[in-house]
Write a structure and sequence with these properties.
four-stranded antiparallel beta sheet, alpha+beta, seven-stranded antiparallel beta sheet, about 475 residues
Length: about 475
């Protein structure tokens, strides 16, 4: 039977009935001494029953908030949960320009250089790695930054980061080519409650829900975390899965050249070669040298590449001879996909390390994959869309300002779509029409003549994500329709 606390009037009625039935006292009219005493007792009992119901409800996730919810989450087995803190925004893909006079020599933009925003000078963005200006090069692209302050305020639209706050004197300009995303406020009650339910279903460790929960919860060493995570189990490759992660930027431009590795084949042969991990794609060829002279490379029919672990298993005993030199490097060979590249930054490599497991750090990297299986952490494949947007502003409103606002809102809306999520035209129009300066708007498929109204757009599969960029969004004035 459900416990329902009684009201003071219900308790008072029972008390009066009991006193009259069990004693000779019968002066229970309103205002009498006996009535007043019983009323106070009934009020106190009602308050006690209400407190008891609150204590009972505090042991159910659905019925508590604030500190009580934190206490219940912390008691969950085996280690409990803590509310996730705010995280920092990252990305931006800055374009850095140095003065032409110094192009005759190589120079380096160091890690830790900072840049600022025109709309909020108090926010600072820090470079994640050093970047080299080669001789004759005055511009470098795809310089990612992370906001020094955590929270959603660090999310910046295209072109917002444009001031230099602390960088070498040869740097003369900075331009932001992509938005910074991933900045999130601390976890709300509803989010913590939802994560607690997912946590309870994740205690099996290697089930899809367990891996998705762990990835969504993970905070990297640079205070970033993913916004979306979805496990894809490949039906054509038994034991192989991919956890598709996205921080809102689809991790565009995050890959970098892998560190070259080499060695000499020992007398007894070799079965395992190692390289930097996690690699973006399987290794497609291994360079081979005989007497320091490069000969035909070893191709994939002689080995099995596991890029997420940085391991190559040699399955052909005749692939190498003792004394041969092997090398895995950034190759420009004839084989397709022979480029050896790895995921940069902290988020994807550290999530992969957590899934693989590390005996030296069992708390942060407990290992979540079952024996004999593979789970690769991969960003979604970007499926770019082209849009023509016919904008009709309110009379008297500057068209240029409205067009810029529509472009930014469109890119932000598409940028918030999850991997595998479709673009619903009605939702995009509803979002754009929140702008009070807009009178009407029409969406068309880009670069299609004659004009064709945009229809709902689906991703090719669950591993793809829809995105668009400023050069793929064309704003059309009313006079051109």
């Amino acid at each position: 039977m459900a416990y329902v606390p009684r009201s003071s009037s219900d308790i008072l009625r029972d008390l009066i009935a009991g006193v009259v039935a069990r004693s000779e006292l019968n002066d229970v009219a309103e205002g009498s001494v006996l009535s007043q005493i019983l009323s106070v007792v009934a009020l106190e009992l009602s308050s006690a029953e209400f407190r008891m119901s609150r204590i009972r409800d505090s042991f159910f996730l659905e019925a508590v908030t604030g500190g009580d919810l934190d206490d219940r989450a912390a008691e969950l087995p085996p280690r409990g949960l803590a509310r996730l803190p705010a995280t920092a925004a990252s990305g931006g893909a800055l374009r850095i320009t140095r003065e032409a006079a110094g192009a005759a020599v190589a120079s380096t933009l160091p890690r830790g250089a900072t840049f600022g925003r025109v709309d909020d000078p108090g926010l600072v963005y820090v470079t994640l790695a050093s970047h080299d200006f080669d001789v004759g090069v005055t511009v470098i692209n795809n310089v990612d930054v992370v906001c020094a302050a955590v929270g959603a305020a660090g999310n910046a639209s295209i072109g917002t980061i444009s001031t230099i706050t602390a960088a070498p004197p040869f740097v003369i300009a900075v331009e932001q080519m992509l938005p910074t995303v991933g900045g999130q406020a601390g976890e709300t009650d509803d989010q913590l409650r939802s994560r607690a339910r997912a946590y309870l279903s994740s205690l099996s460790r290697c089930q899809p829900t367990a891996i998705e929960y762990a990835v969504r919860t993970f905070i990297a060493s640079d205070s970033t975390r993913v916004r979306y995570a979805s496990l894809y189990e490949d039906p054509h490759r038994r034991g192989y899965s991919e956890i598709v992660v996205d921080d809102g930027s689809a991790f565009q431009g995050i890959d970098q050249a892998g560190r070259s590795v080499d060695g000499i084949i020992p007398r007894g042969g070799i079965t395992i070669l190692s390289h930097e991990a996690p690699a973006v794609a399987p290794i497609m060829q291994i360079r081979r040298y005989v007497n320091n002279v490069e000969v035909d490379p070893v191709l994939p029919d002689a080995f099995i590449s596991i890029p997420e672990r940085g391991i190559v298993h040699i399955i052909d005993p005749d692939a190498f001879s003792p004394g041969d030199k092997w090398e895995i490097s950034l190759q420009n060979g004839a084989q397709p996909n022979s480029q050896y590249r790895v995921y940069g930054g902290a988020l994807i490599p550290e999530i992969q390390r957590m899934i693989e497991g590390d005996l030296d750090d069992p708390t942060q990297s407990p290992g979540l994959r079952a024996a004999g299986t593979r789970v690769r952490v991969v960003p979604p494949t970007v499926q770019e869309i082209q849009l023509d947007i016919h904008v009709v502003p309110v009379n008297g409103v500057d068209f240029v300002a409205v067009a810029a606002a529509v472009e930014i809102a469109t890119i932000a809306f598409v940028g918030n779509l999850k991997p595998g999520e479709s673009l619903v035209v009605a939702k995009l129009i509803d979002r754009l029409m929140d702008n009070e300066d807009l009178q009407n708007i029409h969406l068309y498929e880009g670069l299609v003549e004659p004009a064709v109204l945009l229809s709902d757009t689906q991703t090719q599969n669950a591993r793809h994500v829809l995105r668009t960029t400023p050069d793929r969004v064309r704003i059309i004035p009313p006079v051109e329709i």
